[in-house]
Amino acid sequence: MTQAAPVGVGIIGAGNISDEYLTTLTAAPDVSVRAIADLDVERAATQAERYGIPFHGSVDELLERDDVELVVNLTIPAAHAELTLRAVRAGKHAWAEKPMALDRASAREILDAARTAGVLVGNAPDTILGEGIQTSAALLRDGRIGEPQTVLTLMQGPGPDAWHPRPQFLFARGAGPLFDIGPYYLTTLVQLLGPIAEVSAFGHRARQERVVGSGPDAGTLFPVEVDTHLSVLTRFAGGVVGTSIYSFDSPQRRQLFEITGDSGVLRVPVSGFDGPTGLLNGDDREKEWTDVEAEGAPRTRGVGVVDLARAVRGSTAPRASARLAYHVLDVLLAIEESAAAGEPVRIASSAASVPDLKPTWNPRTVMTDPTQRESTSEPVASGTGDDHEGAAA
């Protein structure tokens, strides 16, 4: 089988997170990073030199380049929708950091534009493609805890203002614990348990202002624009019910993701891409957790871009797709709306199941003939609907 040509990639946003992406992408034979752009051109120049990227410059210059087929949008949340839409309208495939957008209308505009342009759009988080969560998915699919009944997720901590040198955007609209951390949990929940049908939430804001704790702006006060603690009840379309907490107000740091079935409990790793899955079977209090080590090649941030690039060459849909990201955004906004109104909110959108990755899937192996690549079972040109689930995205 012949090796397909790598997909030319352009990066928009040369901040801290770009290091994580570039470490993965420059080691992946499926992609070739051709350009990087940033409002701070010097910062783009630094990353270009560090990673051997042949071009750095402005966003406009990057979007005009014929050798850039896929744009990776690593900007702040408020800029995600605008820049992803510009990339799509320029005829580029696109990947963006989470959240997809800050409102449903902007997200639908991206999906519609992608369908019109015939391009693919993927969206973070791509932790669902990590070997840890993929192992959890396989155990769940194999019935190791029986039929899932309930799920409990917790993300608690004091917030990033103590350590982040520029935390202001993390407490602005489009961030906070719900939009900054929630997508990791919600995307995994949907992958493992299916689409969400209804949420009921309560929000709380412990402080109206916070203080930058490190860096050149240390000691600076800044406003808190969003709730910093959310308590959420979730009903899934398949019947599972869940309880979740997302909080930047707790001195206690705690992360937990447990699915309870009718014959056991599954503890899903949530700290990153790897880590063991915990299994507890039966109702005997003396039983101990069994750790099942993650199976598969190591994967890190940026593997979603690699999967998207393989979808581009193989005419399939990406797993961490804009379709999935739209449903997660719909749920995030519904949680905000429920907390504001004090009543449950039904979710209008849905999401297709995310096909599992085989343990042999490796972002660092050479891509072979794309016609032989494993299919995600989602045709690229299927029909559209009012819930904006056209498979082109």
The percent range for strand residues is 15-25%
Order of helices and strands: EHEHEHEHEHEHEHHEEEEEEEEEHHE
Question: In terms of structural class, how would the helical and strand content be classed?
Answer: alpha/beta
Q: Uncertain runs with pLDDT below 50, 5 residues or more?
A: 369-392
Adjacency order of strands in the biggest sheet: 16-15-14-13-7-12-11-8-17
Mean pLDDT: 90
CATH topology of the largest domain: Rossmann fold
Largest sheet, if any?
9 strands, mixed
Tally of domains: 2
The rounded distance between the terminal residues' Cα atoms is: 28 Å
Q: Which percent bin holds the helix content?
A: 25-40%
Please count the beta strands (DSSP E, at least 2 residues each). 17
What is the CATH architecture annotation of the largest domain? Answer: 3-Layer(aba) Sandwich
Describe this structure in words.
This protein has 393 residues and is α/β, with parallel strands linked by helices. It folds into two domains: 7-127 and 300-323 and 352-372, NAD(P)-binding Rossmann-like Domain (Rossmann fold); 128-292, 2-Layer Sandwich (Dihydrodipicolinate Reductase, domain 2). The protein has ten helices and 17 strands. It has helices at 16-25, 41-51, 59-63, 77-89, 104-117, 131-141, 176-180, 182-193, 303-314, 322-341, and strands at residues 7-12, 31-37, 55-57, 70-73, 93-96, 121-123, 148-156, 196-204, 209-211, 221-223, 229-236, 241-247, 254-261, 264-267, 277-281, 290-292, 345-346. A nine-stranded mixed beta sheet has the order 16-15-14-13-7-12-11-8-17. A six-stranded parallel beta sheet has the order 3-2-1-4-5-6, sandwiched between helices. A hairpin with a 2-residue loop joins β13 (254-261) and β14. α4 runs parallel beside α5 and α5 packs antiparallel against α10 (322-341). It is globular, with a radius of gyration of 21 Å. It starts with 6 loop residues before the first strand and ends in a 47-residue tail after the last strand. Mean pLDDT is 90; it is low at 369-392. Residues 353-393 are annotated as: Disordered.
